Amino acid sequence: MYDHRRQLRNGAREAVGDVVQGRHVRKERQRLEDVRNAALVNRFHAVRASNVLNHSYFSAEQIERALSHLHGYLRDGGWLLVSRSRVSGSGEVDHGSIWRKEGVRFVREHSFGAGAEIASLVDQFREDTAPRVVQPLTT
After folding, report:
1. Where do runs of H (alpha helix) occur along 74-118?
2. Do 43 and 82 belong to one domain?
3. Co-location of 17 and 43 in the same domain
4. Does some domain include residue 23?
5. For 65-114, what is each residue's pLDDT tens digit?
6. Which of 56, 74, 115, 123 has fewest C-beta within 10 Å?
7. CB neighbours (10 Å) of residue 47?
8. What 3-state DSSP class applies to 75?
9. In what order do the strands lie in the sheet with 91-102?
């Protein structure tokens, strides 16, 4: 069980906690972006990530890892909306794309504005080639 979370200098977050195995207790550290919450797998019909999944905040590898989690959390046929607001001369404008989960991939169904800035990463995503996700140890 993880009982402490902290921000690392490189921007990654990690969980630190005691893992009990039999009569032994040991400290374990795990990057939060590597932990997939098993209780959320195949639970959602739709997920919206607005002003979050973009290259200003995350590297391509981190975005792919997030996509792997989102893919796992969505039910087959579920919807993923990724968008970002940009300020223009006429005010704030939303740009984004909508995908449907189909097997091991996402299928783009629609884009608005200039589309999601990570559209190529989502279009190329395949769960079978995504970075492997480490499950936290449970007692």
Report:
1. none
2. yes
3. no
4. yes
5. 999 999 999 999 999 999 999 988 889 999 999 999 999 999 999 999 99
6. 56
7. 17
8. strand
9. 44-50, 74-88, 91-102, 105-112
**Rounded CA separation 43/137 (Å):** 21
- Report how many domains make up the chain: 2
29 in Cβ contact with 16 (< 8 Å):
yes
Q: Is the pLDDT higher at 17 or at 67? A: 67
Q: Does residue 109 share a domain with residue 78?
A: yes
CA atoms within 13 A on the CB side of 57: 11
Strands of the sheet containing 13-21, edge to edge, are 4-7, 13-21, 24-31
Residues in the chain: 139
Burial grade of 39 (CB within 10 A; 0-12, 13-18, 19 or more): exposed
Torsion angle defined by CA atoms of residues 99, 102, 105 and 108, in that order, rounded to the nearest 10 degrees: -20
pLDDT tens-digit readout, 22-62: 555 544 444 545 567 888 899 999 999 999 999 999 999 99
80 touches 74 (CB < 8 A)? yes
Q: What angle do CA 81, 77, 93 make, to 5 degrees?
A: 15
Give the domain extent around 58. Answer: 39-129
User: What pTM value is reported for the model?
Assistant: 0.70
pLDDT in tens, 80-92: 999 999 988 889 9
